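Can't paste images in this forum, so I'm doing it all in text. The chain is below; anyone willing to post the predicted structure tokens underneath?
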Amino acid sequence: MLRVFLALMLLAMPAVARADWYEASTPHFVVYAEGNPDRLEAFATRLERLDRAIRLMVGQKDTEIARASRVTVFMVDDVAAVEKLSRSGLAGFFSARASGSFAVVTQERAGSGDTALKPMQVLLHEYGHHLMWSLDPDTAYPGWLIEGFAEFNATARFGTDGSVTLGEPPLYRGIAILGETMPIEKLLTADARSLSEEEMSAFYGRAWLLTHYLRIGAQQRSTQLGAYIAALKAGEPSLEAARAAFGDLKRLDGELDVYKKRHLPISTIPGDRLAIGPVTLRKLPAGAAAIMDVRIRSRVAVTAANAADIYADARHAAAPWPNDADAQLVLAGAALDASDYAGATAAADRALAADPKLLRALTFKATARMVAARKASDARAETWNGVRSLLSSANRLDPRDPLPLWLYYRSFAEQGAAPPEIAKDGLATAFQLAPYDKSLRFDTAAMYLQERNGGAARTLLAPLAYDPHGRATAKIATALIAKIDAGDIEGAIEMLEKPADERSGK
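Text version of the structure:
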């Protein structure tokens, strides 16, 4: 599994202001970095060009996305703290959430030599996953194509002329590609979660090789990947879709064995085809810069065990900035994580006093009230009407932000009340805005199940069941699909009401 974590490094970051922080804002990303603004602008530009290149390759138009759907990227200096506190080689982190997707990437390699996994490759691999969930949210892609697509994008090379080259071999998987193999039928149907470490290595290498071959390596097969995906969309299982699209699978397997020994082709998209939107650069205000380290830790590294410590650091960092919206917003989030709901509300109020249009301060305040009411078993209408009033205000500030819509729906379950149609419609809209959030996807599928709409629920659950990184959620989704396919909608609904560790039947 390529996903790697920086939590331990982030816990080691001191909560003190250092050099100036800058923000680069683009149509698909918001990137933060300390120091060198020119390097930041160049990095943000490369990310935008990569996004454009992938969309061109898969034939997807570049439609405008909501501001809330942009990915926030925090650039940090190195992985030294990770190597000190955890295993070496940790290079980056990516989390796709309706509340705001974010990534952390370092500026140096995670190891030495050309075969080392580089931080940028981690980010681009994970962004490939993010785009797949975003651009085609209803298709249940098999694991080989999920990982093959992500690996294909991970090695993107950026030219000084604005071009982007895709298809470079992932040298960190060289042994897996050249020296290991996996029978084609097993590759096409493999559940990555059940593979051994050795099998997993072969799976990633062969998945990349097959993706590369079908994308740019075999002119005679140029239309076959599209036909395979079309069959998947029509509900065909992976193996049957592959036989229909690729023909003789043993022949394809043999072609791959020959192909991997060749000098492999690459695909370069010229810069003049990669026109991107504006990159807006700004220096962060002093208050926002002073609390940036805590902001990153609060987003990425917070756990039940360290939430109180991060909150203490947030209080210390925000204390000189009581009228700074950014500082108080970070403090409100840290207070929520530490279960100080009064503190979260007070900090959110200070943030709103500084910036009345700060949407996330409204959602923090609503969440603090909602959780406090649930823990106090407070089901009074006035309490929950107040929560929903805050969420309605947040929605009016940005109707395309999925979080207020999702929280509005959840507020009824937290109260113990049945959600009205407007809340259900809001949840469906939230999912359309953030199909990459797997928890939101599951909640939306559960809503359809409770409405006895098994078909809609199954469509949303199927990608979760195939998710190579799904673990418990994938097991639950698989169990629910089995109930739906058996016509047992009531049994599926009953399964939803069980504790999470009982839903899969294990």
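The radius of gyration is 23 Å. Residues 283-437 form a domain with the Serine Threonine Protein Phosphatase 5, Tetratricopeptide repeat fold (CATH 1.25.40.10).
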